[in-house]
Amino acid sequence: MDTQWDFDSIGGSAISVEGALASPEAVNAQVAQVLAESVGQAPVIPAPEDDRVKLSGGLYWDGELLTHAQVREMTGEDEEALARVKGSLARWLTVLLERTVVQIGAEPATAKMVRRLLIGDRDELVIGVRIATFGKFITAQNVQCPHCEEFFDARVDLTKIERISITEPKPRHEYDVELRDGRKATIRLPDGAAQEAIFDKEDATLPERNTALLGNCLVRVQSGENQDSRTGAELAKALSVADRQTLIRFISDTQPGPLLDDIRFDHEACGKEVRLSLTMPELFRGE
């Protein structure tokens, strides 16, 4: 079943056409409730900050490594277009970036460029769009401290999130990884196209998603001078479970970008470190 993504339905239930015709007063009340839950009080949004985003990995394009991009704030037209997106969150992210990334390097951004961006750089740009739209602070509500067990609201500065950066990028982001029995795999870090392939099937199992990931990232596997003639998913399925895990760990450890699933800060009340994670939809709910 396709998933439809929209900001308002994250915090409220859908309103049917039949319900609207039968009881407009109830609909107005429901709309008010949804707006209150999803937006709260009107956020105080500062003037747009720097709309340039530094890419953690960079995009190889026409032989050049592009390391910066320009984004713009979201509009109502963008929000309507995103609400019509059917499919995975990865596809939703692609549409968001196609609409809001103005240029990458000195090049006008295109759909092809957006899908070629590393997954971590796509996350960087989503944060950039969020900052341009709502500002750099976001409040995570009802966070429980694992030490003192107190519930509190955590105000997070999105510009201060820890990031993994590639200090010495390889051409085309390709890396050699040693496998068992003296073999070597050359893999490319996953990009937007790989991200879409991984989550293309909602009911896919974890091993199937791993096959999709490796099938998109494997360039070659060779033993000495002999190269395996298989490619893509066929090659990914032929690898041993141990070799697949080795490659997936390497990708996870090497992939650049913001650590949205491991945000750390000190709880003011007890002084102990607290960790939390932010999802992509949560980034667009205002502060």
Question: What's the helix and strand layout?
Answer:
Layout: H1 8-11, H2 17-22, H3 24-38, E1 52-61, E2 64-71, H4 76-83, H5 89-100, E3 101-104, E4 107-108, H6 111-116, H7 119-134, E5 137-144, E6 151-157, E7 163-164, E8 174-178, E9 184-188, H8 192-198, H9 206-217, E10 218-223, E11 226-227, H10 232-238, H11 241-254, E12 257-258, E13 263-266, E14 273-276
Antiparallel strand pairs: 1-2, 2-3, 3-4, 5-6, 7-12, 8-9, 9-10, 10-11, 13-14
Spatially, the strands of the biggest sheet line up as 1-2-3-4
Number of helices: 11
Order of helices and strands: HHHEEHHEEHHEEEEEHHEEHHEEE
Q: How many strands, which pairing sense, and closed or not: the largest β-sheet?
A: 4 strands, antiparallel
Give the tally of β-strands: 14
Mean pLDDT rating: 83
* N- to C-terminal distance: 32 Å
User: Uncertain spans, ≥5 residues at pLDDT below 50?
Assistant: 1-28
Structural write-up:
The protein has 287 residues and is an alpha+beta fold. The protein has helices at 8-11, 17-22, 24-38, 76-83, 89-100, 111-116, 119-134, 192-198, 206-217, 232-238, 241-254, and strands spanning 52-61, 64-71, 101-104, 107-108, 137-144, 151-157, 163-164, 174-178, 184-188, 218-223, 226-227, 257-258, 263-266, 273-276. A 4-stranded antiparallel sheet has the order 1-2-3-4. Strands 8-9-10-11 form a 4-stranded antiparallel sheet. A two-stranded antiparallel ribbon has the order 5-6. The longest helix has 16 residues, at 119-134. It is globular, with a radius of gyration of 22 Å.
